Protein backbone atom coordinates (compact mmCIF):
# COMPACT_ATOMS: atom_id res chain seq x y z
CA UNK A 1 0.00 0.00 0.00
CA UNK A 2 1.33 3.41 -0.96
CA UNK A 3 1.78 5.78 1.98
CA UNK A 4 2.19 9.48 1.16
CA UNK A 5 5.29 11.12 2.59
CA UNK A 6 3.66 14.49 3.10
CA UNK A 7 0.19 15.08 4.33
CA UNK A 8 -1.55 18.39 4.61
CA UNK A 9 -4.66 18.41 6.67
CA UNK A 10 -6.98 20.80 8.33
CA UNK A 11 -6.99 20.79 12.10
CA UNK A 12 -10.63 20.66 13.09
CA UNK A 13 -10.19 22.51 16.37
CA UNK A 14 -7.77 25.26 15.48
CA UNK A 15 -8.37 25.44 11.74
CA UNK A 16 -4.65 25.52 11.11
CA UNK A 17 -2.76 23.57 8.55
CA UNK A 18 -0.80 20.67 9.82
CA UNK A 19 2.08 19.15 7.92
CA UNK A 20 3.16 15.62 8.58
CA UNK A 21 6.30 14.41 6.93
CA UNK A 22 8.31 11.29 6.62
CA UNK A 23 5.75 8.82 7.87
CA UNK A 24 6.71 5.21 7.42
CA UNK A 25 4.13 2.65 6.41
CA UNK A 26 4.63 0.90 9.76
CA UNK A 27 4.00 4.13 11.68
CA UNK A 28 0.84 4.82 9.74
CA UNK A 29 -0.42 1.26 10.21
CA UNK A 30 0.33 1.33 13.94
CA UNK A 31 -1.19 4.75 14.53
CA UNK A 32 -4.25 4.15 12.37
CA UNK A 33 -5.08 0.82 13.93
CA UNK A 34 -4.41 1.89 17.52
CA UNK A 35 -5.92 5.36 17.10
CA UNK A 36 -2.76 6.94 18.47
CA UNK A 37 -2.17 10.57 17.79
CA UNK A 38 0.74 12.82 18.39
CA UNK A 39 2.69 10.81 15.85
CA UNK A 40 -0.10 11.31 13.37
CA UNK A 41 -3.01 13.63 13.95
CA UNK A 42 -5.45 10.77 13.91
CA UNK A 43 -6.85 8.10 11.67
CA UNK A 44 -9.70 10.37 10.61
CA UNK A 45 -7.18 12.81 9.22
CA UNK A 46 -5.68 10.10 7.09
CA UNK A 47 -9.11 9.28 5.79
CA UNK A 48 -8.61 12.37 3.62
CA UNK A 49 -5.88 10.48 1.79
CA UNK A 50 -7.34 8.06 -0.74
CA UNK A 51 -5.89 4.61 -0.34
CA UNK A 52 -4.56 5.24 3.17
CA UNK A 53 -4.89 2.53 5.77
CA UNK A 54 -7.08 4.82 7.88
CA UNK A 55 -9.45 5.19 4.94
CA UNK A 56 -9.69 1.42 4.89
CA UNK A 57 -10.24 1.36 8.65
CA UNK A 58 -13.03 3.91 8.34
CA UNK A 59 -14.55 2.09 5.37
CA UNK A 60 -14.52 -1.15 7.32
CA UNK A 61 -16.44 0.56 10.15
CA UNK A 62 -19.07 1.66 7.60
CA UNK A 63 -18.87 5.29 8.67
CA UNK A 64 -18.30 8.14 6.23
CA UNK A 65 -14.90 9.79 6.09
CA UNK A 66 -15.20 13.03 8.07
CA UNK A 67 -15.45 16.30 6.19
CA UNK A 68 -13.17 18.64 8.07
CA UNK A 69 -14.34 22.13 8.88
CA UNK A 70 -13.00 24.44 11.50
CA UNK A 71 -16.33 25.86 12.67
CA UNK A 72 -18.70 23.92 14.89
CA UNK A 73 -22.45 24.14 14.21
CA UNK A 74 -24.01 27.19 15.82
CA UNK A 75 -27.01 27.24 18.13
CA UNK A 76 -29.86 29.24 16.58
CA UNK A 77 -28.27 29.11 13.12
CA UNK A 78 -27.64 25.42 12.40
CA UNK A 79 -29.33 23.73 15.37
CA UNK A 80 -31.94 24.50 18.02
CA UNK A 81 -33.11 22.95 21.29
CA UNK A 82 -36.70 21.67 21.37
CA UNK A 83 -38.65 19.17 23.47
CA UNK A 84 -38.00 15.60 22.35
CA UNK A 85 -40.80 13.21 23.22
CA UNK A 86 -39.90 11.07 26.23
CA UNK A 87 -36.30 12.30 26.22
CA UNK A 88 -36.51 15.75 27.81
CA UNK A 89 -35.00 18.33 25.49
CA UNK A 90 -33.15 17.46 22.31
CA UNK A 91 -31.12 19.07 19.53
CA UNK A 92 -32.75 19.57 16.12
CA UNK A 93 -31.35 20.65 12.75
CA UNK A 94 -32.33 24.08 11.43
CA UNK A 95 -30.90 23.26 7.99
CA UNK A 96 -29.70 20.31 5.97
CA UNK A 97 -26.46 18.89 7.35
CA UNK A 98 -24.45 16.93 4.82
CA UNK A 99 -23.18 13.43 5.49
CA UNK A 100 -19.69 13.51 7.01
CA UNK A 101 -20.05 17.07 8.35
CA UNK A 102 -18.22 18.03 11.52
CA UNK A 103 -20.90 18.84 14.10
CA UNK A 104 -18.98 20.01 17.19
CA UNK A 105 -16.99 18.76 20.13
CA UNK A 106 -18.62 17.68 23.37
CA UNK A 107 -17.57 20.46 25.75
CA UNK A 108 -17.58 20.49 29.53
CA UNK A 109 -15.34 20.13 32.55
CA UNK A 110 -12.52 17.62 32.08
CA UNK A 111 -12.32 15.56 35.26
CA UNK A 112 -10.36 12.58 36.51
CA UNK A 113 -12.07 9.59 38.11
CA UNK A 114 -11.04 10.92 41.55
CA UNK A 115 -12.57 14.34 40.80
CA UNK A 116 -15.80 12.69 39.62
CA UNK A 117 -15.97 10.60 42.80
CA UNK A 118 -15.51 13.74 44.89
CA UNK A 119 -17.97 15.84 42.91
CA UNK A 120 -20.70 13.21 42.95
CA UNK A 121 -20.11 11.65 46.36
CA UNK A 122 -23.39 10.13 47.59
CA UNK A 123 -25.09 10.67 44.21
CA UNK A 124 -26.72 7.61 42.62
CA UNK A 125 -25.18 6.45 39.34
CA UNK A 126 -28.56 6.80 37.60
CA UNK A 127 -29.00 10.39 38.81
CA UNK A 128 -29.77 13.10 36.25
CA UNK A 129 -26.74 15.04 37.47
CA UNK A 130 -24.37 12.32 36.19
CA UNK A 131 -26.27 12.02 32.88
CA UNK A 132 -23.86 14.37 31.08
CA UNK A 133 -20.64 12.46 31.77
CA UNK A 134 -18.78 11.03 28.80
CA UNK A 135 -15.52 9.11 28.91
CA UNK A 136 -12.62 10.81 27.22
CA UNK A 137 -9.80 8.33 27.76
CA UNK A 138 -8.36 6.23 25.00
CA UNK A 139 -7.90 2.51 24.43
CA UNK A 140 -4.40 2.43 25.85
CA UNK A 141 -5.10 1.87 29.53
CA UNK A 142 -4.46 5.52 30.32
CA UNK A 143 -5.93 6.94 33.50
CA UNK A 144 -9.62 7.53 32.81
CA UNK A 145 -10.75 11.09 32.26
CA UNK A 146 -14.26 12.35 31.62
CA UNK A 147 -16.02 15.34 30.12
CA UNK A 148 -18.86 16.53 32.32
CA UNK A 149 -21.40 18.74 30.51
CA UNK A 150 -23.79 19.00 33.46
CA UNK A 151 -23.18 22.74 33.86
CA UNK A 152 -24.61 24.47 30.74
CA UNK A 153 -22.34 27.49 31.28
CA UNK A 154 -19.29 25.25 30.80
CA UNK A 155 -20.74 23.25 27.91
CA UNK A 156 -22.31 23.69 24.48
CA UNK A 157 -25.19 22.41 22.34
CA UNK A 158 -23.68 18.91 22.43
CA UNK A 159 -25.11 18.34 25.91
CA UNK A 160 -28.62 18.26 24.40
CA UNK A 161 -27.97 15.42 21.96
CA UNK A 162 -30.08 12.40 22.84
CA UNK A 163 -29.50 8.69 22.32
CA UNK A 164 -30.87 7.27 19.07
CA UNK A 165 -29.63 3.69 19.30
CA UNK A 166 -29.35 2.08 15.86
CA UNK A 167 -31.33 4.96 14.35
CA UNK A 168 -28.60 7.47 15.25
CA UNK A 169 -27.51 9.94 12.57
CA UNK A 170 -24.26 11.03 14.29
CA UNK A 171 -21.14 9.26 15.43
CA UNK A 172 -18.59 10.18 18.05
CA UNK A 173 -14.88 10.28 17.35
CA UNK A 174 -12.27 10.41 20.11
CA UNK A 175 -9.55 12.79 18.97
CA UNK A 176 -6.27 13.02 20.81
CA UNK A 177 -4.32 15.67 18.95
CA UNK A 178 -3.63 18.52 19.54
CA UNK A 179 -5.87 18.02 22.60
CA UNK A 180 -7.97 15.11 23.74
CA UNK A 181 -11.58 15.73 22.79
CA UNK A 182 -14.80 14.10 21.68
CA UNK A 183 -15.90 15.21 18.23
CA UNK A 184 -19.16 14.42 16.48
CA UNK A 185 -19.77 13.92 12.76
CA UNK A 186 -22.89 13.29 10.66
CA UNK A 187 -23.21 9.61 9.77
CA UNK A 188 -25.74 10.46 7.07
CA UNK A 189 -27.46 13.47 5.50
CA UNK A 190 -29.66 15.12 8.15
CA UNK A 191 -32.69 17.06 6.98
CA UNK A 192 -33.90 20.32 8.51
CA UNK A 193 -36.18 19.53 11.48
CA UNK A 194 -34.59 16.15 12.24
CA UNK A 195 -33.27 15.45 15.72
CA UNK A 196 -29.51 14.92 16.06
CA UNK A 197 -28.98 11.56 17.77
CA UNK A 198 -26.00 9.39 18.61
CA UNK A 199 -25.64 5.99 20.16
CA UNK A 200 -24.64 6.41 23.83
CA UNK A 201 -23.62 2.74 24.03
CA UNK A 202 -24.60 0.01 26.45
CA UNK A 203 -22.41 1.13 29.34
CA UNK A 204 -24.16 4.52 29.55
CA UNK A 205 -27.51 2.77 29.97
CA UNK A 206 -26.39 0.01 32.34
CA UNK A 207 -28.16 1.67 35.30
CA UNK A 208 -30.79 3.58 33.33
CA UNK A 209 -32.10 1.06 30.82
CA UNK A 210 -35.74 1.54 31.74
CA UNK A 211 -35.48 5.22 30.70
CA UNK A 212 -34.76 4.52 27.01
CA UNK A 213 -37.42 5.63 24.51
C1 LIG B 1 -26.85 14.21 27.81
S1 LIG B 1 -28.51 14.27 28.33
C2 LIG B 1 -29.35 14.67 26.82
C3 LIG B 1 -30.17 15.93 26.95
C4 LIG B 1 -31.40 15.77 27.82
N1 LIG B 1 -32.47 15.16 27.06
C5 LIG B 1 -31.84 17.10 28.39
O1 LIG B 1 -33.02 17.43 28.33
O2 LIG B 1 -30.98 17.84 28.94
C6 LIG B 1 -28.83 12.56 28.55
C7 LIG B 1 -30.18 12.29 29.19
O3 LIG B 1 -31.24 12.54 28.25
C8 LIG B 1 -32.24 11.55 28.35
N2 LIG B 1 -32.24 10.74 27.11
C9 LIG B 1 -31.38 10.80 26.10
N3 LIG B 1 -31.71 9.93 25.13
C10 LIG B 1 -32.80 9.28 25.55
C11 LIG B 1 -33.61 8.25 25.02
N4 LIG B 1 -33.38 7.69 23.83
N5 LIG B 1 -34.65 7.82 25.75
C12 LIG B 1 -34.93 8.37 26.95
N6 LIG B 1 -34.22 9.35 27.52
C13 LIG B 1 -33.16 9.81 26.83
C14 LIG B 1 -31.87 10.68 29.54
O4 LIG B 1 -32.46 11.23 30.69
C15 LIG B 1 -30.36 10.83 29.57
O5 LIG B 1 -29.83 10.53 30.85
TrEMBL record:
SUPFAM superfamilies: SET domain (SSF82199). Transmembrane segments: none annotated. It comes from Triparma strigata. Its main location: nucleus. InterPro entries: H3K9_Histone-Lys_N-MTase, SET_dom, SET_dom_sf. It comes from the Eukaryota. One of its GO terms (biological process) is methylation. Residues 77-201 form the SET domain. This is SET domain-containing protein. It is found in: Chromosome. Gene3D superfamilies: SET domain (2.170.270.10). Keywords: Chromosome, Metal-binding, Methyltransferase, S-adenosyl-L-methionine, Transferase, Zinc. One of its GO terms (cellular component) is chromosome.
